[in-house]
Amino acid sequence: MKAPPNKRAQEDARQTEQLKETRVESGRDYGHRKLHDDLLKQGENVCLNRVARLYRPTKNLLMLQRGR
Question: Does this model's pTM top 0.90?
Answer without folding.
Answer: no
